[in-house]
Design goal:
Length: 271
Amino acid sequence: MIVLVVNDISSFDLKQASAAMSNLKKLVQLPTGIIVPGLPGIVPGSQTRLGELVGNANWTFGSLDSAVTGIPALTNSTFKCPYCTDLIFICEMTAAIGYDTKLQCLQLAQKLALSANRNNKRKYAIALYGVQIYHSLVLQEINEFNVTINQLIQNLEDQNSPNGGQSYLAPILNQLYTTLGNSSSSKIGVTIIMGELSVIRDPTPANAAAQKVAKLNSDVYVLDETRFGPPSSIWTTLTNNQPNHIVNATSAADIEDFFKTLLQDLQKSQC
């Protein structure tokens, strides 16, 4: 966003500045303008010409006072806040990752969702994967999500189910890509995946799927449970190599620090 504050846009200035504004719009989604009084006062027709320059009369304001209230309302209707949208959890459910870690992932997802529930714009989803996708991503309101995750926790506690013998990562990452792409807001939401790469059976398709997700510029965090196996770039690809987005999930202290930091960020949002 950019705010252009002027006393007047003359017809000559409008012609001269139109090409520059066209180039600016390639970088700026919301060019706005404010007319302020100069020595001659408000020049007749100045706001109309300013509207022609920025491309929308509704993006211009006839005074600083009207801009003080108008611009925040305009930006709120145009831009979505980073953490007011979807919060997605993905948990690996395999024998390799173990019962305790599976339960920890579900409980962490529930705890974070309930703690972050401060506005009605955010939706939540939980997915489980292993040999296959055991539970698909479905965005829900907080109450529906809580019912869903309570049932998943009960299934795990009663039957240790699901409990896959191998891990196929590509299918759930492709589903994540579809979910993010179909949501008008989740491209700037948060995805948290807890998994490991020790028994992954599809590293090449998984890396390709991770590249697709990364191109959406969604905020993805990985709680990495990998304890052995060859090095892999899947997690760094998935997170766009952003700092502090891959957490050593074998350390309880690191998980606790991650939870506190992310929760603080979520609660700071003012949407």
